[in-house]
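Hi everyone, sorry if this is the wrong subforum. Our group has a chain we'd like a structural model of before ordering constructs, and none of us has done structure prediction before. Sequence below.
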Amino acid sequence: MSKPIVAVVGRPNVGKSTFFNKIVGRRVSIVEDTPGVTRDRIIAEAEWLSHYFFLIDTGGIEPDSEEIIPSQMRAQAEIAMDTADVIVFLVDGRDGVTTADMEVAEILRRKRKPVILVANKIDGLKMPDNFYDLYELGLGEPFAISAINMLGLGDVLDEIVKNFPEGLEAEDDEDSVKIAIIGKPNVGKSSIVNAFVGEERVIVSDIAGTTRDSIDTPFEKDGDKYVLIDTAGIRRRSRVNDDIEKFSVIRAIAAIERCDVALLVIDATEGVTEQDKKIAGMAHEAGKGIIVVVNKWDLVAKETNTMRDMERKIHGELVFMSYAPVMFTSAIKGQRLLPVIDMAKKVSEMRAMRVSTGQLNALVQDAMVMNNPPSDKGRRLKIYYVTQVSVKPPLFSFQVNDRKLMHFSYSRYLENKIRDAYGFDGTSIKFVFREKGERDEI
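Answer:
Right subforum, don't worry. Here is the predicted structure as tokens:
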């Protein structure tokens, strides 16, 4: 589904992060310790009464003692309005109206976006004396809540979903393969989109950061439907020094969340960089299909095995997603682009493929005969049963005698056997191991 985006804005220490975590339904850490992944979690999916949306926490702004309202706060309020479909303006209900609140409200009123004024930190039925001063902000009636105690959140959520644009939550065309084109700035993502559709659909520029938003472009090839999602380049965190870049990252993450296949575009003249690894990790963590597209291949001096050596090097750098096909293109010269679309279709099909339980169990039994399961202190791992429980990405459930006996290397061995038999090119496959009496957690 195409999900609306809701941004939470406000000055420091009004409870934005607490509000964010309560709405999302869990505490969302800033950094997730996943191999190959450093993911900034200022965006998360939320749900209210079967309405699904992305919630953005715009926290992290520090006040400047020399200014009434820091330029960074002003910029973030501006960008939130341009990025979000609905804006939640959070204030401290005990403080009444501050000068900073007035300046943010002035910015909010100038934009044609729904704004919901929320007064936080009000724990009782009796309103503070200065609560009614909030009407001076000119943003309508304030909602009184206590985020930490989860008081009044339902009314705010009702108002949020009421303001979603019509048709935004409509189901996407299930017949279309949705392809997100991701990568750091200036690797040729927009040029690839233009080459696919045969026209200048998106702005192409040598200036890094030209594409600030994600742009959907419908596209057909051989009767098959696709949607190309061009995203803003994702910069290294050290270079995300303005809020426009930060919100471009948010849009790119949201594009990854709703795509079927991600094309990770890297610059052939640079090879795999640390930022490429982080971007790849986002798509891998999200369980999306992935194709590595080595663009600007025309700029590389060729020898007999240049392409093969580059592919090996890429898989060596992106060891956590060695399943991803590597393709070589030159968008500017229109070389080797259409096969990328064909591969995206194949990866999408692999990601949705199911293997019968009978075939799986026969394969695993043969694999155990060829390579005995690991043992520890006289106890050997036994695999009683395996079945595929879901797709997108494929998830396999193994019933075992003791999950602690399942060594990582043996799990990887079983994954390789499944891939050898059924392919699953371009998609991660997930395993869960349960003991008798336990239910699968999907």
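For your construct planning: The chain is about 30% helix and 20% strand. The first helix runs from residue 16 to 24.
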